[in-house]
Each structure stands twice: as structure tokens, then as C-alpha cells.
Amino acid sequence: MQFDDRDQMPRLSRFLFGDWLKTSSVEPLTQDVESTHFAASYRDGQRASHLRRVSLGDSHLRVVDEVAGFSRKAVLRWRVAPSDWRLEGQRLINRDGSHVLTVEARMPIVRCELVEGWESRHYHERTSVPVLEIEVQQPGTITTEYRWIA
Question: Residue 40: what pLDDT?
């Protein structure tokens, strides 16, 4: 999650960051018949907060993000495997329909866009990856559900 176009930890030098995030709360790993659950939250140095609840089942992953304390906007990014993805409203679907990522929010989503991003698995190497960006301008809850055909 990125708040107000800024890094959550300010850069002190090329490889050193300051104001490290500290966990505000943790809900331990629990399991029931349908899925495994856990949650954690933090508040950054400028008072923006993020609570994430995760639930993993046999053929789905559900992530609920609660965000608050930002001034202008919050951007949630999901990096997805390179593939032929298509965006239909707030649903991202791969070529054969076997993977679907759906985003819903309790506040208005001002932007839901598939963009080119980068990943770096090794030093001095970067690779292009598709990234779904979801932007909101009000505090609230964003729910993402990722489903796959097992």
C-alpha cells in the first residue's frame, strides 16, 4: 500500500531507510474447515494506517485491506504473473479464465488500471511484470479476491 505518493520509510542513504514500520496488531494464524486466516496492521510515521486480513482456501485467496490516515490517496498494487491479462471493470482475468482477481471497495475506487511494473529477483536485474493498481481517495475497506481453478 502506498499513501500520498510517498515511501512509508524515508530513505536515509542509498541502502538505508529510517522510521521503520512497527506492527500495531497481530491476529495469529487460525484454521477452520474452509480456510486459514491471519491479520496484521501498522501505522506509519505520518499516521497513515493499514490493516490486512488474509484468508486462504483451496481455490481462493481473500485479502481485506482497511486504510486510513492519509491526506490525498492510497494505492494498492497487485503484481501478477506475466500472462495475457484483460481488465473488465474491477476484475482481472487471465487468457483462459483460470485465474480471476476481483476488487471491491466500500469507498469509491477512483482508478483501477493494469500497468507495467517491475520486479527484481536478483541484484542489477529487473523484469517487467503486470501490476493492477487500485486507487482510493477516502479511508475505508478494499476487498480483493483471487480465485483459480485447481
Answer: 98
